[in-house]
Design goal:
By secondary structure, the chain is of the alpha/beta class. About 45% of the residues lie in helices and about 20% in strands. It has a seven-stranded mixed sheet. Strand 1 and strand 2 (about 10-15) form a beta hairpin. Helix 1 crosses helix 2 and helix 2 packs across helix 6 (about 195-200). The longest helix has 27 residues, at about 165-190. The protein is globular. The termini are far apart.
């Protein structure tokens, strides 16, 4: 996959399905995941008439993992914005946001302004009740405990579970430090309870998507429906 330097030596790994059409679907993955989450999207001819841009967030997949990076939602959004500016500089944008990508994508939408014409919120983080795994990471472990043992034990459990095997690959690439630092900020911005207001304030059509096994699992789903 190609890699592009976005700023200060940080490189984002990305995939781009490019066609002669002005608009672009931008895909943002969740915590410990990667752009490979969306690899099947090109199997759908209803979508391949559009440009499709997916990337590994900073610290994830094949992107840079600097030790001194803050791993905040806003900073990760800023690097995605630079990638979008370089690889999809014109035309309208539709964002597809999953898990942590929900929080990053809300900040990204604010940065992109009126280029964003729609958002698909695919079980994206919207408030603190959505912080299942991220809150577990930072409240049940210190950073030292997470880095020096717990991360590896969870990784081994994932590798032994056929349903988690694919996720274990991106989880391992992201690594303990990225997961802990990103979880800290994801919980922080979710607790602030401003994400829903920001999403509504963007002022574009938004579709909320939940898997059939997860319908009713997320308390934020009810809040989503209200708007």
């Amino acid at each position: 996959m190609p890699v592009l330097e976005t700023c200060q030596g940080i490189k984002l790994s990305y995939s781009l399905h490019s066609v002669d059409f002005p608009d672009t679907i931008v895909l943002l993955h969740g915590l410990g995941d990667s752009k490979e989450t969306f690899k099947d999207i090109t199997n759908y001819p209803q979508l391949t008439g559009h440009n499709i841009l997916a990337m590994d967030h900073v610290g994830h997949g094949d992107s840079s993992s600097p030790q001194d990076f803050g791993y905040t939602m806003k900073k990760m959004a800023e690097h995605v914005k630079k990638l979008v500016d370089m690889k999809a500089p014109t035309g309208n944008i539709v964002l597809v946001l999953h898990s942590m990508g929900g929080a990053i994508g809300i900040f990204l939408a604010e940065l992109l302004g009126d280029r964003v014409k729609g958002i698909i919120f695919a079980e994206g983080n919207l408030d603190f009740d959505d912080c299942f795994f991220s809150n577990y990471i930072i409240t049940r472990h210190t950073l030292d405990e997470w880095i020096n043992g717990k991360f590896d034990r969870i990784l081994e459990k994932y590798k032994a579970n056929p349903e988690m095997l694919e996720y274990s690959k991106s989880f391992e690439k992201a690594g303990a430090l990225t997961l802990y630092k990103a979880s800290e900020d994801l919980v922080k911005v979710s607790k602030a309870d401003t994400l829903l207001g920001k999403l509504v304030g963007i002022g574009v059509p938004v579709i909320g998507v939940y898997g059939e096994e997860n319908m009713g699992k997320y308390p934020s789903e009810a809040r989503f429906r209200e708007h």
